[in-house]
Design brief:
Blueprint: H1 2-13, E1 32-35, H2 41-58, E2 64-65, E3 72-75
Amino acid sequence: MRLFHLLLFVLTICPVIHATDYLFAEGQSAYSIVLGKEASQTEKTAAGELQTILRKISGATLPIVNHPVNKGIYIGWT
């Protein structure tokens, strides 16, 4: 069930990304997963699971960071 919700989330954000700016392509991504500096354990777990699922789907490993980035998937209060 968690995998379904995660996949639904990813499919929901993909249309928001401009057509020439892909979340990942050919095993690479310019995006990061962004957590707040005081992220809860639940948010950290969600970020890790998202990273794992996206790596399995695309071959790209998105880094998990705790600072604002231009291209990011933000989790929790950041």
